Amino acid sequence: MAFVKVLKTAAYFKRFQVAKRRRREGKTDYYARRKMVRQDKNKFNNRKYRFVVRFTNKRCICQCAYATLRGDVVVAAAASNELSAFGITVGHKNYAAAYATGLLLARRVLKKFDLDEKFKGKEEIDGEEYHVEDEENEQRPFKCILDVGLRRTCVGHRMWGALKGAVDGGLHIPHSTKNFPGFKPAEEKGQEGEYDAEAHKDRIFGNHVKEYMEMLQEEDPTKYEAHFSKFIAEGIDAEKMEDMYTEAHEKIRADPTGEPAEKKDITYERDDDTVKASDGTEHVRSNKITLTQRKEKVAAKIAAAQAKMMEE
User: Fold this and answer.
1) At a CB cut-off of 8 Å and minimum separation 6, what does 185 contact?
2) Cα R_g (the chain), whole angstroms
3) Of 57, 94, 103, 157, which shows the fewest CB atoms inside 10 Å?
4) What is the largest CA-CA distance in the chain?
């Protein structure tokens, strides 16, 4: 028999340390989190705010949060599905929607701290580089650090749209234009890269979606109707795209709180396992049974199965 080297000995398992739960689940990059959360001792537990950007299959979520020993505390939040109240009823996960969500969060955060009148941000959206800290103000701007989670920070990603929206909204988030759409890196060492603000502006106003809509409309109308069915249902075509986003930006700046959803006065009546609602819908909901009833039910099923087997 060949010699087998024991790699994991008792000493190994004695010293084994289980990784944090969110690391085991692959949800948190703790190396990055420690860098963002760690605060200098001479700042006496001052809050260190993070601009958190996350994307799901259907929407973009932005939050302003700070860390405590008990967990993260969210100061304000905005999600792209809330943009429906501001006129953007469809396309809640593209670059333009991410920009509008970032802008919405920035205005909400500043309004919460009564800074919305002092820091207006950039009201003319042209895609140019903007830093609120460069403006002359008596008070320092509200500072956040970008938190992108596990996403790759590749050039032109939607997360930069949310960042640009928040920066134009008046938040101070340290950044450069190197990852924005329209940036071209230097061809030779020592040269500076080029940033095309117009290309970025086109993304902010959804012109890339507009061009794709027009192309499909001409080349493949069937595919256009399938891909943009929700746009068609809302009566939004390629020509209305830019106006939709422009109006939404103005509404967000005017009042970022949004209209509260109307409460539906629906009453429910239960009839055994059926629940009938006042709006005419019905739902099946099982009644709660006791342990004795549950045991009797199982015994009855077993007896029925045994009877069936005896017959066969």
Assistant:
1) 178, 193
2) 28
3) 57
4) 92
